[in-house]
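Checklist before submission:
- one chain only
- standard amino acids only
- sequence pasted in full

Submission:
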Amino acid sequence: MAKKSLRQNKAVKKKVLKSNVPNSSKASKPSSNIKLYIVILAVIVCGIVLAFAYMINIRYQSVLKLDNTVIVDNGAKAINNTNLSLNFGTNNPGGIGYRWFNIESDYKSNIRIVVTGEMSKFLTFEDNNFIMQPYENRTIKTILTIPPGTPLGAYDGKVVVYFLKP
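Returned file contents:
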């Protein structure tokens, strides 16, 4: 009987020891789950990047950039006009100037006009943030307003016309 209980104790110990040893198939499950999560995360990130690239590509039909310049001086007004720029020449502090440029769109477009650079504080547009129909031509009036007391000097910038898909 003592031999039997000793054998039973050894058998019980073996069972306990076996239950504490992780099963090799169970040990591989967490690492395969981690791999699956990494793959899912990579697919989601790629999807977001592709969607963002698609939205950027679709949003803009085209962009037109016009350089613009004004020289603030106590002299006579002069206007310099070229096809790719919107220059106001020389203007006095407190002076006002007007320029026009034409735009045309081959598609129905939402038009948004912005000014960058130092000229942004001087320029406004009579018509901005509007919809153009296909093959429509539009003349945009640009208004230059030089506040009194503006320091003398040359001011540069760009007029950027965005042709956005509606």
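Reviewer check: The first strand starts at residue 60 and ends at 72.
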